Amino acid sequence: MTDSDPTGPSLDDSAAASSEDRRYRDLRADFDELGAGHHVALFYESLAAQRRVAAAFVASALERNQRCLYLTDRNEAAAVRGTFRRDGIDVARRIDAGDLRIRSATDVYLDEGFDPDRIIETLGNASAESHADGYDGFVAVGENSWSFRTDEDLDDVVEFEAAFDAHEADHPVTTLCQYGLDDFDETAIAKALRTHEHVVYRDTLCRNPYYLPPERYADAASEGLNATLMLEQTHGLARSRRALERQEQRLAVVNRILRHDIRNDLNVVIGTLSQVRETDALDGPSRARLDRVDRVANRLVDRAEKARYVQQTLTDGSVERFDLDALVADAVATVRDRHPDATVDVDGSAGVAVLADGHLKTAVVELLTNAVVHGTADPPSATVRVARDGATATIDVANPGPSVPVADRRALDRGTETPLEHAGGLGLWLVKWIVDNSRGSLRFPETDPETCRIALELRAVE
């Protein structure tokens, strides 16, 4: 079959189908991670999309040994079975085994009139029966369009959702309640949003920021709710959270490689260089080249160590109270131990305390190290001053030499790097992120063109 064959699918159709299949595989994986006992609402625009989400939900539950009850209304049972088969569910076998039951929602909800207590009891009994039969859970998937055939007000149906959410049971029921966006008005959708902790919208499982626990739902005002805006914001938050989680996962992998694999390999290199240096076969130029390689290797190990602190500042955002006298003294002692030829003076106020990120000492050590390594004084020297002005405490590190380049400052201020503007490695970025976690500021005071100054402004406390 050629591309021009009118009876075959186009390349665009194939790409769209592949993209759709990938979305539903991702959604299925999200349902696997969600686990049992949750109350989920699906808001859909077409019956085909609704059936595919329901299929992913049911397939996930069956795979985890949960009995499933599907309640049809707008969809014919045959259409539901067809979608389930297409998405890999052996419908006939599952029904014969008792794993899957497909019934009319009207029979379950309205057979004896709408009675919320009876419905909750029925679902609870079904869950208990499922556990007695050896299943690990019970799942109910219902098309909520049945609610248009009850004499009750829609508020009563939504209140039933809240009451079901509050129901305590030895064997909780996992549910997927399905709402067609063309069937329910804005107010009804908004109220349904408030009664479900998780929602599916535009093929995305979202944690719902508008969810209200049952004890709060009854007292909440419903006027002026914009369901479309609520759904779009919920979807946007879920997508952003997912992107952030992926970014953090990738950063954790890169950090592990930097901190562990590369550092270990470099330690082998440094150890071998040390052994070679002890031989007598090296002439002067060769020994100089060896020393240069050793310096570069040690610098890379230092950067890998900084990467470890970067990861910690991202994962451990604890804020602690610090006595700056003790903290600065400790940081100065660390730098003097690493650079015994350097002079580090301490000046300023005593008795100043701050609230800051738990890695504040690492930031001060980094600034002092930067001062003695990159300063122009011989021997190296630096001064650290502590001051307080009202609610702000300042740690000011200065050394002879040029200021931090404007391009580096711009990159730090913007929070991103470009090929021509960077902050000279991880050091200043590490300081910035620790200060950001402390709700403080990183400053570059310019009072003397021959002096480099970097200041940390933090929240002072008594």
Automatic annotation (TrEMBL):
GO terms for molecular function: ATP binding; protein histidine kinase activity. Keywords: ATP-binding, Kinase, Nucleotide-binding, Transferase. The keyword Ribonucleoprotein does not apply. CDD domains: HATPase_RsbW-like. It catalyses: ATP + protein L-histidine = ADP + protein N-phospho-L-histidine. Residues 257-462 form the Histidine kinase domain. Its EC number is 2.7.13.3. The keyword Transferase applies. PANTHER family: SENSOR PROTEIN CREC, SENSOR PROTEIN RSTB. This is histidine kinase. It comes from Haloplanus litoreus.
